[in-house]
Amino acid sequence: MPEATTLRTLSDPGRAGPASRLSRLAPVHWLALAFLAAALGFAAAAWATGNGFYLRLATEALIFAGLAMSVDLLLGYTGLLSLGQALYFGLGAYVSALVLRDVAPSFWLAMAAALLAGSVAGLIGGVIANRVKGVYFALITFGLAQVAAKTVYNTRALGASDGLIGIPQIQVGFGPVSLDTADPLSFFLLVLALTVAAYAGLAYLMDAPFGRTLAAIRANEKRVPFLGFNAWRYKLAVYVLAACVAALAGALYPMLRGFVSPELMFFETSGNAVITVIVGGVGTLVGPVVGSLLLTALRSVVGSWTEHHLIVVGVIFMLSVIFLRKGLVGALLARLNRRGESGRTGS
Amino acid sequence: MTKTTLLGTAALILLGLAGGASAAEPIRIGVVTPLSGTYAPIGQQVRWGLELATKEANAAGGIMGRQIELLFEDEEANPAVATQKAEKLFQVNKVDFLTGTVNSGSTLAVGQLAERNGRLIATTVSFSDAITTDKCSPNVFRVNARAGQQSAALAEWLAKDKPKAKVYYLGPDYEMGRSTVAAFKAAAEKTGAQSTGEVFAPLGSKDYSQYFGQLRAARPSVLYTSTAGNDTVRLLTQMGEYGLLRNLTIVGASGTVTAQNIGAIGKAADGFVTGVGYSAELATPENKAFVAAFRKAYDTAPDLYGADSYGLIGFFKAAVEKAGGTDTDALRKAMEGLSWNTPQGTKTMRAGDHQAVQDMYAVRISSDGTNNRFDVVGTVPGDAAIGPDLCTRF
């Protein structure tokens, strides 16, 4: 008996058999579903009380959750710490803003342009950043973002330090029906749907062979070539994927707030995304979403209450690093798993 | 149980009484300003100026019998945070008016938000010309002087004090630094100054001596610079060490030498002249009373931001009284063309672009290394410094 338990904890419990695989998959997706239900409940409550501000705040949290998810792809699944993910978020925001303001007020065109820009920039950035590993990767991503941010900050055509205002509020067309980004509820539901779609797509991908290879890279990159995989290609692919996710999230920002500014590319934005992922739960995808909602709400409330709100967020970050090593969602999942285990042995 | 119920009822009755007794709802002004980070010292002056003026206005009976209430939010000098906080103030706290934004990006973004929420805002700090020229908004007012007014005032003083001066320009190599130099150059050339050359040094340069050869070869009588913070400290002290400060008048942007870096510059700051909308040394009775009250309350002298923010409450009070309430359209109409008194003299809100017209001052620093004074050496009338109305949106 004791031998069996040791084996079990050492090997990945989820890979033990089909039955346990199902029970391992379930908790994180159940959590995501519970989150979706809560989000819809929140939307209904906010709509019933006519509270546009909280809906728009939640929309912003979901947009930054997209950025955090892209950090999680790199950090949680591949083991790459990016300190410059705001580069792609800001790029998507600026591209979307320019398209909406100067080309056509079309949601789909803006998203497509942001996606294209994100993949091209991600490819370039990925080739540069993936030349090095570990802390140097973090520094290169940080440097790339700083260069881009300073360039935008000093480019008059992009509004320089003032940023761009006057991004119109638009109608998003789905065939015969359309919704208005100016309406807090519709836009919240749209962004929620996009977030759920991104979560589902990325979670599927991370469970597919692609994701398993990334996990192998995170576990031991040197061994991956012996299995017949080119680690560099996979790292580049996930870097481009993360850049695209961040760019698409960024593209939604000017639709919500009507402006873009170089601060969106600054280290503060990148750093906040990393904090969000660590507080929410690294390598869970749903963790970044929960973390983003939590931290956005916290900043808004604590920020009104004291100007020392950064200390409060910092303390929460440290506490979660010390006591919740796997973040909120990680801790919650561990509990759920433990209960599932004890339930099974009990029956 | 019964005791708590009783207490609760009593409290409710008391609250009801208090509510009935007070004449009216307070007028709420939202203040979105940096309370943390690099710009916190500016936000602090904004806060002090507004709080002092509010305390005085409330003691004198408020606005039409209603007290003024200030609600502060920290914008972290980040437009993305500023819009979020401003939206909260507009939609949740239902403020009647909003102010406090410091960096120009925040003012522009919050101005657009105000338009979408049907409210008015005013900035007391941002000096980017765009706010009241090509990016002007019907819902945004500026009660402080913009960059153009500052350089016009300085150029005006230069033309009078040193006619046909030969000017050399040294700016920090980034967008704001270059545009500030370009604006002053245009203003100075218009008033007869002769440009002898320009050079741009990277932000945070450690060694400026590499530019001194060019500077000397150009033989200027005046050097204009738009460096800020520690860059100014290094530039001026190095020029002093090289003996370049003799027979050279140094002028610059209003943020080049401030109370924050003058201590480190020391004697090298002596003689520096800039164009600004305020100096605590202004010798008017209104200003003397203001500075005394400010010192008494906060134990420090007001700066430009504190004075402009203090003056805003008077502007708002006069406009609400003229409009008979806080309805947006009526208030906007009342604010346009309004003249009001401030410690800086009388200001007039130009209707065409919502830019305040005010007398501008040329301020010279006299320093013996430990004691520094910002003396007013020239006054440029508001009309001479304001420049044309370039706003076409309304």
UniProtKB/TrEMBL annotation, chain A:
GO terms for molecular function: branched-chain amino acid transmembrane transporter activity. Its main location: membrane. It is found in: Cell membrane. Keywords: Cell membrane, Membrane, Plasmid, Transmembrane, Transmembrane helix. One of its GO terms (cellular component) is plasma membrane. The keyword Membrane applies. It is a multi-pass membrane protein. The chain crosses the membrane at residues 28-49, 61-87, 107-128, 135-153, 185-205, 236-253, 273-298, 310-334. This is Branched-chain amino acid ABC transporter permease. It comes from Azospirillum oryzae.
UniProtKB/TrEMBL annotation, chain B:
Residues 1-23 form the signal peptide. Pfam families: Peripla_BP_6. Residues 26-369 form the Leucine-binding protein domain. GO terms for biological process: amino acid transport. The keyword Transport applies. Keywords: Amino-acid transport, Plasmid, Signal, Transport. It comes from the Bacteria. The keyword Transport applies. InterPro entries: BCAA_transport, Leu-bd, Leu_Ile_Val-bd, Peripla_BP_I. Belongs to the leucine-binding protein family. PANTHER family: LEUCINE-SPECIFIC-BINDING PROTEIN, PERIPLASMIC BINDING PROTEIN OF ABC TRANSPORTER FOR NATURAL AMINO ACIDS. This is ABC transporter substrate-binding protein. It comes from Azospirillum oryzae.
